[in-house]
Amino acid sequence: MWELPEIERERKKLDQRFVGQRIRAVKLQKESWANVTLTELQEQLVGRQLLYAERRSKSIIFHLDDGHRLMLNMTSLGQLTTHTHDFNKDDAQDAQQKWQLSIAFDDGSWSIAGARSITLQWISARELDEQLKAVGPEPLSRNMSPALLKQRFEKRRSSLKTALSNPALIAGISSTLADEIAFRAGLLPTVRIETLNDEDYQALYHALTEWLKDSFEAEDSSADKIYAVANRAGAHCVQCDSVLEETQINGRQAVFCSNCQHEHAQVPAHASK
């Protein structure tokens, strides 16, 4: 699966591999995926230097040396691959046939396949700021705290899972990740936000930050091991060996352990690791 952790690890690869290099070619499978024509995309991007790659929510943002940004969003990823080979005419032909997006740099290329759709936007810094106004704070931002979570959540009348996966409240947490965070916190995904107390918010904060830190640091080869409940309904809980259950919350599957998760946190979230 490709969630926030996988996208963050990919951003790090881009930073480590291509920062300081100039873009030499861009190939996009469908012109409708970009906010400008493919011709304009080539004209504006070729020759531009990558200053750094940033992740905001589930977007990868390429910061370019002319002050513009290239913002990439993907849905339903099946494969996300960084290439380190030179990009020549043969590679370009292969990219058009196989890859949905390929960006060639001075020394290597970065390509994507397996996405249901891609959104690629060439925008100014101001336009990016305007778009991000609607997105909640990053879960690992310096000002994230139990008090901030409570401030953003407490007036909501929804389940914990629904609040966690609302991008206006907190950035980048999908339905799948919401289940993982609830499990780490020892809270049922169905619990009502209005019933949470200060201890619950402490547990939720620790679960949110510690699970994401663990997942960001995981190696690609062991990345799947960080998911304790995702898509595992009917399997055995990694903590107590009980059978994981599932329910529907606003039309979305929620997987949980009724033995380890409760209406209120039983122990500090970090103790459940």
TrEMBL record:
<dbReference type="GO" id="GO:0006284">
    <property type="term" value="P:base-excision repair"/>
</dbReference>
<dbReference type="Pfam" id="PF06831">
    <property type="entry name" value="H2TH"/>
</dbReference>
<dbReference type="GO" id="GO:0034039">
    <property type="term" value="F:8-oxo-7,8-dihydroguanine DNA N-glycosylase activity"/>
</dbReference>
<dbReference type="InterPro" id="IPR012319">
    <property type="entry name" value="FPG_cat"/>
</dbReference>
<keyword id="KW-0238">DNA-binding</keyword>
<feature type="domain" description="Formamidopyrimidine-DNA glycosylase catalytic">
    <location>
        <begin position="2"/>
        <end position="106"/>
    </location>
</feature>
<keyword id="KW-0863">Zinc-finger</keyword>
<dbReference type="GO" id="GO:0016829">
    <property type="term" value="F:lyase activity"/>
</dbReference>
<keyword id="KW-0456">Lyase</keyword>
<protein>
    <submittedName>
        <fullName>DNA-(Apurinic or apyrimidinic site) lyase</fullName>
    </submittedName>
</protein>
<dbReference type="InterPro" id="IPR035937">
    <property type="entry name" value="FPG_N"/>
</dbReference>
<keyword id="KW-0234">DNA repair</keyword>
<dbReference type="InterPro" id="IPR000214">
    <property type="entry name" value="Znf_DNA_glyclase/AP_lyase"/>
</dbReference>
<dbReference type="GO" id="GO:0003684">
    <property type="term" value="F:damaged DNA binding"/>
</dbReference>
<dbReference type="InterPro" id="IPR010979">
    <property type="entry name" value="Ribosomal_uS13-like_H2TH"/>
</dbReference>
<dbReference type="InterPro" id="IPR015886">
    <property type="entry name" value="H2TH_FPG"/>
</dbReference>
<keyword id="KW-0479">Metal-binding</keyword>
<keyword id="KW-0378">Hydrolase</keyword>
<dbReference type="Pfam" id="PF01149">
    <property type="entry name" value="Fapy_DNA_glyco"/>
</dbReference>
<keyword id="KW-0326">Glycosidase</keyword>
<dbReference type="GO" id="GO:0008270">
    <property type="term" value="F:zinc ion binding"/>
</dbReference>
<dbReference type="GO" id="GO:0003906">
    <property type="term" value="F:DNA-(apurinic or apyrimidinic site) endonuclease activity"/>
</dbReference>
<keyword id="KW-0511">Multifunctional enzyme</keyword>
<feature type="domain" description="FPG-type">
    <location>
        <begin position="228"/>
        <end position="262"/>
    </location>
</feature>
<keyword id="KW-0862">Zinc</keyword>
<keyword id="KW-0227">DNA damage</keyword>
<comment type="similarity">
    <text>Belongs to the FPG family.</text>
</comment>
